[in-house]
Amino acid sequence: MKKLINDPEHVVAESVEGFGWANADIVDVRTDPLLVLRRGGAVHGKVGLVSGGGAGHEPLHAGFVGVGMLDAAVPGAVFTSPSPDQIVPALVAADSGSGVLAIVKNYTGDVLNFETAVELAEEDGVTVAVVVVDDDVAVKDSLYTAGRRGVAGTVAVEKIAGAAAERGDDLATVAAIAARVNANVRSMGVALTACTVPHVGGPSFDLPEDEVEIGIGIHGEPGRRRIPAASADEITGMLVDPILEDLEVGRGEDVLLFVNGMGGTPLSELYVVYRQAHRLLTERGITVARSLVGNYVTSLEMQGASVTVLRLDEEFTELWDAPVHTAALRW
Amino acid sequence: MKKLINDPEHVVAESVEGFGWANADIVDVRTDPLLVLRRGGAVHGKVGLVSGGGAGHEPLHAGFVGVGMLDAAVPGAVFTSPSPDQIVPALVAADSGSGVLAIVKNYTGDVLNFETAVELAEEDGVTVAVVVVDDDVAVKDSLYTAGRRGVAGTVAVEKIAGAAAERGDDLATVAAIAARVNANVRSMGVALTACTVPHVGGPSFDLPEDEVEIGIGIHGEPGRRRIPAASADEITGMLVDPILEDLEVGRGEDVLLFVNGMGGTPLSELYVVYRQAHRLLTERGITVARSLVGNYVTSLEMQGASVTVLRLDEEFTELWDAPVHTAALRW
């Protein structure tokens, strides 16, 4: 294992400390427990947005803290859910009195720990709504997960719900919008290589040099199948087809097309995947009205990518376009 | 070799086509020869900025085309200079009558091809100034290069000169500012792994599993030395020390600290490097007034990072902060 780290035990804390220094105009980093908060704290009259989960998926979630997106992010250890003790102070810090929406990716540990934290925070007088993101069409009932996994669609949920909160929508409305984004977004990924979790020290799974795994999870959970390495266009088709089938999106509809890198894939390759996904959608009469390409929900240095499609309506488009000022998304 | 590509012969064209579709609000892509132009063409009364070089370093340079930065980018084949035939139309397209600044990274092929292209464009009536970026302190007279190599400092040159052009400075002024940025910026990198050029099909060099290369070039050119894999803090010191020594920056000065990923390194590790670089600068009484962390000048999927330090003055800071709207930098 060669990594630009010091001690595996401290890698998350050190990385978040560096993140905080580099983005001191956007976030405040709190330690013990480790939290990333929107600079200046909860905004009076605004619903707070909190997300979190295991580290190793950067820039998710800390990179999405800031104006127009999250109020707090809770980074666990690498690929490990944060504890309720860590989540409660985030929910409390994000609450200005208007309540908090917790955005949770569907992994059993995250869901349980957020549930416990929400109960505890509500005892402290914080009203919390929860949306569980489960956009991955690859498999149901995976390693770590009952039901579908939450993956890159989380970015769309955080951006659009964040914009709704920023414009002043109340908690019930922001929660309903977040749930509606989740109902209209689907993703699927591919891995070319595994990644190495620092405190484990070896690859998270074995993938032969001549195979790729279609439907991979963001922690290396098994996907649908392994196939001999194929062209980018062929692989892209294997991701786009199940997404479109599941989403039942069709001719005349507008979508956001998001090609996400797993961390170790060159940006140039993500654009090759984007190109083919765009062609496949356009061929079916679907309009790619918005796009996002880059490393947003990663698996450390895994080589691979995922495709996400969000069905857009006028409200989603307006909220997607609304200003955002975070480390990882800014417009 | 496993990559998300189709045919190695077409990977650059396909990637740039996808890039153009994903960023159709920012750029126009022209084929034959392949060019990325600021949408809407040259801006009347504004000096044009053109850069280019071999592909494989994305988002450099196409990702920096747009308001406040480049007017045109010329992508060659992977790690291969674009030809004069490809550069001339970019210089012509970027000229609104106010002249063009060509920003060239110091590699012999790039310098020669840009020189030829400038002569040809000037025959066509375009006034061109050239700045050659050579910020890499690692080695002199490397593979492909007489003198020092141009690496991640190029981003600072393009951003700051781009802002000067955008505010209406004339060609001589923009060229002088670009040269002044180059004179005040230094970089040095480290590789943990090699990368694989698609049309070569194997790693660009051999690096044992227990060694890293200090002072690596962005095409895998040899650096200063190979050392046994060390901690992020130790490696960061080996990059920061030669930079500070060469730049002669000291107590009381403001700098931009830029930690750049080589493409295959997790963002979380870049922040670990940033953290230590920030500590080392702060310990010496240098103020980190601006920061940038991410994959901006990459070497395909190489694992590694570089540190760049730019000495800031009031003008540089103002131009760095000026609005920019490109695919890769936006504020």
Per-chain topology:
2 copies of one chain form a homodimer.
Chain A: H1 11-22, E1 27-30, E2 35-38, E3 48-55, E4 66-67, E5 72-78, H2 84-94, E6 100-105, H3 108-123, E7 128-133, H4 153-166, H5 171-183, E8 185-191, E9 211-214, E10 225-228, H6 232-247, E11 254-261, H7 267-283, E12 287-294, E13 304-312, H8 314-321, E14 325-326
Helix pairs in contact in A: 2-3, 4-5, 6-7
Which chains have the largest interface? A-B, 62 and 62 residues
Query: Strand order within the widest sheet of chain A?
Result: 1-2-5-3-6-7
Run of helices and strands of chain A: HEEEEEHEHEHHEEEHEHEEHE
Total beta strand runs of chain A: 14
How much helical structure, as a percent, in the residues of chain A?
Answer: 25-40%
Any guess at the CATH architecture of the largest domain in chain A?
3-Layer(aba) Sandwich
CATH topology of the largest domain in chain A: Rossmann fold
Total DSSP helices of chain A: 8
CATH class of the largest domain in chain A: Alpha Beta
| Oligomer designation | homodimer
